[in-house]
Design goal:
By secondary structure, this protein is α/β, with parallel strands linked by helices. It has helices at residues 5-36, 38-59, 63-86, 115-125, 131-137, 161-177, 196-209, 219-231, 234-249, 265-281, 293-299, 302-311, 322-330, and strands spanning 108-109, 112-113, 186-189, 214-218, 252-258, 284-289, 313-316.
Length: 337
């Protein structure tokens, strides 16, 4: 799953298009502003002329003249700002506006690839082809408490399924709201079909819409990719290692259906290393699993269980299988064979 030349070129075309659009929008704003407030157009010309004079004074080291020119430019800039505000424009209306101020829509910063560029790479390499459609269907706008009964209490959570899911959704919302500033990890566990994956989809959509890099993998996919980074042949090893690096560094990693993979010494080591690496980097992780806490303890090593129980917020999702409930509703209360 390396980023091939065609994909790289496609990403660069996205950035080139953004830059052209930025220039086009700026020119349109300038034309509108200059027609609405002609004095601003004159000020722009006066500042440009003074800038040339300033440059000459700087070369000739005429400090007194340079100071005087700087004062004139400052007054003109203040007048321009005042006119923009009086006519309903922001102070920076005559400057380029960027999709990503950090890299100014180039995709690169002084430290290397910008976070927005990494997000584009993830879109091409690791984004499940069906996930975008899934997120349009499974998100907080389509989430319903209707499928969580309120007529019995769970012995472990001591709440009804509805009360429990309301608390969990509130935690999810807080996780999203505090995501930029608070390092946190979540694990959803419970029976099949109670909405664990749906909750991870809700969180993924909210953070993807805010331009965070999110990698969403099944447990089987995760271990396949991590195995490739260690055991691939020379020709593909570099690309696999690059993929593993993004798994460790993305803003949010979501591992769905932990426990469905074939567990062995490699998966245990790979899982611990992955969780540990992300913990050390302060990168959040979300896990969903059908395993109970006791089954997690028995399935994975003590180190993994300790890492999960100490660094993850454990949330048991309770209720009855929502898929079955929906089939019953669609079939008038009878499941047809």
């Amino acid at each position: 799953m390396a980023l091939d030349n065609a994909q790289y070129d496609q990403i660069m075309r996205i950035y080139n298009k953004r830059q052209l659009e930025n220039q086009h929008r700026l020119q349109e704003r300038k034309n509108t502003i200059f027609q609405t407030v002609p004095r601003i157009s004159l000020i722009q010309g006066e500042i440009a002329a003074l800038s040339i004079t300033q440059a000459k004074a700087r070369i000739l080291k005429k400090r007194d003249d340079l100071t005087a020119y700087e004062e004139q430019v400052k007054k003109l800039q203040q007048e321009r700002t005042q006119l923009l505000l009086e006519n309903g424009y922001p102070p920076d209306a005559l400057k380029l506006q960027y999709h990503c101020p950090d890299c100014r829509d180039t995709g690169m910063t002084e430290h290397g690839k910008c976070h927005c560029f990494i997000k584009e790479i993830i879109h091409f390499l690791y984004h499940d082809s069906n996930l975008r459609n899934i997120l349009e269907q499974e998100n907080f706008h389509t989430f319903s408490y209707h499928y969580y009964p309120d007529n019995y209490q769970d012995s472990i959570t001591e709440t009804t399924p509805k009360e429990n899911i309301q608390k969990i959704v509130k935690i999810c919302r807080n996780f999203i709201d505090n995501f930029p500033n608070v390092y946190d990890n979540l694990i959803f566990y419970g029976a099949t079909g109670v909405g664990k994956s749906f909750l991870t989809h809700c969180i993924a959509k909210e953070l993807l819409d805010q331009a965070y890099s999110v990698i969403y993998l099944s447990a089987i996919q995760l271990f396949d990719f991590l195995a490739a980074s260690q055991f691939s042949v020379k020709e593909t090893k570099a690309a696999a290692m690059e993929l593993a690096r993004h798994i460790y560094e993305c803003d949010l990693l979501i591992v769905d259906d932990l426990g469905t993979e074939m567990t062995n010494s490699f998966t245990h080591t790979a899982l611990f290393n992955c969780l540990n690496e992300r913990h050390c980097r302060g990168k959040s992780t979300i896990i969903s699993t059908n395993l109970s806490i006791e089954e997690l303890k028995n399935t994975y090593s003590e180190r993994i269980f300790s890492r999960i129980t100490s660094n993850f917020r454990l949330m048991k999702v309770i209720g009855t299988d929502i898929r079955v409930q929906k089939r019953l509703e669609n079939n008038g209360g009878t499941i047809l064979c």
